[in-house]
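Ticket #4471: structure output looks truncated?

Reporter: J.K.
Steps to reproduce: submitted the chain below (380 residues) through the standard prediction queue, then opened the result file.
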Amino acid sequence: MEREGKSSGISDVERAIGEALLRWYETHRRDLPWRRRQDPYAVWVAEAMLQQTRVETVIPYYERFLARFPTLQDLAAAPLEEVLKAWEGLGYYARARHLHEAARRLMEERGGEFPRTLAEWRRLPGVGPYMAAAILSIAFGQDLIALDGNAIRVLARLFAFEQDPRRPAGRRQLQQRAERLLPSGQAGAFNQALMDLGATLCTPKSPRCPECPLRAFCAAYAQGNPEAFPVRAPRRMLPHYDVTAGVIEADGRVLIAQRPLQGMLGGLWEFPGGKVEPGESLEDCLRRELREELGIEVEVGEPLLTLRHTYTHMRITLHVFRCRILSGTPQPIGCADVRWVPIAELDRYAFPRTDQRIVEWLRQEGSSSLTRQTTGRSRT
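Returned output as attached by the reporter:
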């Protein structure tokens, strides 16, 4: 019986590639914390964190997260706000929300039992084809290829693959070719070997080809142009938006708002504001946003900070102003919640990176100037 995802009739060259890669991995594998604990929960948390994030960045977050939520049961029982706080600074917060929601589903619907098929894993929030294959191959020993960015780069060079693997058709073809290399029963080691090879030798620039265990088989090396692969379509320019935020203080506390749970940065806390519309001044934008989001009228005072940040799909410039409430009581009209929080307690809340920089400014420079303001006087 032919195993899932595997073609029959493997050639001697294909078999030799798999064997050479596994021999190299035995002596050159990276010592990573998630490889010391191969249970499905630990592998799943690691794969969620590693999406679009460098290994060096993930390691301390992973270790703290597993110390705080050591089991699936612990994660499922925790409040979302606590999970987001543990994730704070790692970015792409939908990963944390999905991980938490999936943990709750697994406990409620399966009694804590982990899925054993691709289809079952794919039904969980945040689990795509790569993550499902990685978990099943590493934690359950199933013969499935898992293509992350490092593996794609290695394979694209190995085959001198002429299509863009970021596009669906190209990715399907590359996966089909890669599946033929899988050594039976060793997919977990094979997948991790590809990842390590791409991270340490077959790097995006200046690959260390003389040290590569696949050099003798590599078509791109034979052509003398490994850096030409993977083929990439031209990148589109990221759009830029101006965004405003208001720092509103009263009695030593500042007003923060929680973003809606669904959508970008869902569930995180921020200093309220929003995106500038065409033809709108920064001050008019902030007044409108606070009216729509919190039901208050404000006086926009002095500018405090200008912060720039790049997301995967856009760039923003965040203009931060001191504000004073003229009328109304803050209510969660366009957000999930609002709170007045002492500056010293802001660390208890999970903020996006830009708002973390506002918190840092308040602690270091802004708190004394804020508390000196009187509540009945303009802050300009």
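Triage note (M.O.): checked the attachment and the full token line is present. Confidence is low (pLDDT under 50) at residues 1-7, 371-380.
Status: closed, working as intended.
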